[in-house]
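ARCHIVE CARD
Drawer: 12
Card no.: 0347
Subject: one protein chain, sequence and derived structure
Cross-reference: see card 0346
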Amino acid sequence: MNEPLLPPSEYRTEASWDGDGVLCDLAGNVLLRFRSTERRSWPLGAAPPFTVLDMNGREVLTFSCRKRIPRGVFEITRSGRRVGEIRQLTWLFTRYAVKFDDGERLTFRFPHFKVHFGGVAGSGAAVQIRMWTHRSWLARVEHGVDGPRTAALVAFFHRERLRHG
């Protein structure tokens, strides 16, 4: 399921203020596209579902908000089947726990007023993210967690960070 996106383990995400965008390797080759599936305002309410697609238009993962207040819970699905969830651990949108149904777990930290943040898997493999601009991120993913699921998580967190900045 989380087969590697080879050869790169370094990615760049480019997103609009709406959260739509692409995930590329550092040479600029588009690997994944992402978009919100609905257009509506969502300042404090639940955000619309967020879908990451491969280059053939097939769904990699979809993230849907199940609960926003007091802390967000997002369901991760693939082809309509639940594959995991994301739980917001702090009120300030700085820590998230990701748990996939196959047992893979990751924890992401997004300190305020910083440009470097990222996550770590239960195996110890790291995901390092650098905010180049609000709409452009660079990510380095270690091979223990490298793959479409982790790339989709980076895209999802990019959209969340655009919302809560």
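Annotation on reverse: The longest strand covers residues 59-67. Helices lie at 148-164.
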